[in-house]
Design a protein that fits this description.
This protein is 45% helix and 22% strand. Strand 13, helix 11 and strand 14 form a beta-alpha-beta unit.
């Protein structure tokens, strides 16, 4: 095929093909000499007509050649003038403008590119018009609106959930902080360990009580804690023997994140144990005081039975004999009467001794200083140590219980010194310093070991307990061969304005 022929317009409406004899057919139907061989010629209109003969006449076809000067219409086959058997109609007008309902395609022909344009008729468009795309569009729009609504609802719900989660997170964080502050400031030690007995959490009190840092404990197992390693800089534990103290431990299982932990609560019960021991000590002291009281009553009963009752019984028998001898033997009756009088005199003296031992009347009449002087005078025979008494007090009288306690303390101290010290001198001091009274009883005898005093001897313990009950304190300093010094300090309680000391004590 020769795309260009010399001496002819390249945009011809017929395609010339060289045949074997070198003759070509021109536009007017005549044959012309050609360079080469022409084997045949074709007409574009006829080819298009033959191509459209089998299709309904509902689409107009236009073939044109685009050029720089403008499109050149090669052939046109409108629907209204479509030939029945070839012979298309050339239209001199320009090809129709493309719209969205047109179809256009470009094909190569020799060294040109032709454009084929198809334009459907109005009947074709009407017959093929459908509301399905519109319905699909509306359905799509409705689906889009629904999806947008769902998206908005889900977004709103998501926002509400995020706000709720944020609020709960803040609440949980605040709750965790409150719980952590509570645990950190608790007086008990908290341990949280896992099933392998590793410590996973611990509070400050546990660290301070054990003497480890938090980092050290978190690297340890619960059975690796050394009970002998305790903080040496804490004063509360320094007074305990071997730096050990009693601890009460409570265990409770805790489940978190599918794991089982054990929460240990270690509570220092030193104060409770001390309180229990103090209570037991008070109970023992109370039993001892009751026993001592019963012992004193028993001794008084023995003394009354062995001394006073015997004297009175003897005097009674003598007086009975006087009644029988008065007429038969007046001289013997007189002797029996004299014996009865002597027995009664001894009985009266014994009764006074017993009364003075229980509570001397001079204590109620003249006060504690005079009662101590009377006590010293009674306990200063030639076979006993010499007793020195020094007193410097500004008070005249004190409350009855305080005077009685001072008297009993000095009486018990003098009795022990005179019986056991083997000292030739005992010194008694009664001093007043500000609003306190100080008592000191000292000897220079053999002394003793306080740890070896028998438990049934209540004298020294009675002194200490009397001082403690009155809000004071007592100290006993002694050692073998170094003598004994008993020091007692008591707060001064003046005697009330009305009534005697004996009445106050009875009240």
């Amino acid at each position: 095929v020769c795309p260009r022929l010399d001496g002819h317009d390249p945009h011809i409406r017929q395609l010339y093909v060289l045949d074997a004899v070198g003759v070509r057919t021109g536009p007017d139907g005549g044959e012309r000499a050609l360079r080469g061989l022409a084997v045949g010629s074709f007409k574009i209109d006829r080819i298009v007509d033959d191509a459209l003969a089998y299709y309904p006449k509902e689409v107009s076809v236009y073939v044109f050649n685009p050029s720089s000067a403008g499109p050149e219409l090669i052939c046109a086959h409108p629907v209204d003038s479509h030939p029945a058997a070839g012979g298309g109609k050339l239209a001199d007008e320009a090809p129709p403008k493309l719209t969205k309902e047109h179809y256009s395609v470009t094909i190569p022909v020799a060294d040109h590119r032709w454009t084929i344009q198809c334009v459907p008729s109005a009947d074709y468009l009407a017959r093929h018009r459908s509301f399905r795309p519109v319905g699909a569009l509306l359905g799509s729009l409705a689906g889009t609106v629904f999806l947008v609504g769902c998206l908005i609802a889900m977004t709103d719900r998501t926002l509400r959930l995020e706000r709720r989660v944020a609020e709960r997170t803040v609440e949980l964080r605040e709750s965790e902080q409150r719980f952590r502050r509570l645990v950190e400031n608790a007086a008990d030690g908290f341990f949280l360990r896992d099933q392998q007995r590793r410590i996973v959490e611990v509070n400050r009190q546990a660290c301070e009580a054990l003497g480890y840092s938090r980092e050290e404990l978190l690297r340890m197992r619960i059975d690796e804690i050394d009970p002998s390693f305790l903080p040496r800089n804490l004063a509360r534990y320094s007074a305990l023997p071997d730096e050990q103290y009693p601890v009460e431990i409570r265990l409770a299982p805790v489940y978190a994140a599918g794991k089982r932990f054990m929460l240990s609560l270690a509570r220092d019960i030193t104060e409770r144990r001390q309180a229990e021991e103090a209570l037991q000590k008070e109970q023992r002291l109370l039993r001892d005081l009751i026993n001592l009281h019963e012992h004193d009553r028993q001794l008084i009963a023995y003394e009354i039975h062995d001394e006073l009752a015997q004297l009175l019984t003897g005097a009674h028998f003598k007086l009975q004999s006087v009644a029988h001898l008065r007429t038969a033997d007046p001289a013997a009756a007189e002797i029996a009467f004299d014996d009865a009088v002597q027995l009664l005199a001894k009985g009266i003296a014994e009764a006074r001794r017993l009364i003075s031992g229980l509570r001397p009347p001079i204590l109620d009449e003249s006060g504690v200083v005079a009662a101590i002087e009377f006590l010293i005078c009674e306990q200063s025979p030639s076979d006993r140590p010499r007793i020195e008494f020094e007193h410097q007090v500004r008070f005249d009288r004190l409350a009855g219980p305080l005077e009685s306690s001072i008297f009993r303390i000095i009486q018990e101290s003098l009795t022990n010194a005179c019986r056991y010290s083997q000292s030739d001198r005992v010194r008694v001091e009664l001093l007043q310093v500000d609003n306190r009274v100080q008592i000191c009883v000292q000897d220079w005898g053999v002394g003793f070991d306080p740890a070896k005093v028998a438990s049934d001897h209540f004298g020294l313990r009675g002194i200490q307990e009397r001082a403690r009950l009155l809000g004071g304190r007592a100290a006993i300093q002694t050692a073998p061969s170094e003598g004994t010094r008993i020091s007692v300090e008591l707060p001064i309680v003046p005697q009330p304005g009305n009534g005697s000391a004996a009445e106050d004590e009875r009240q």
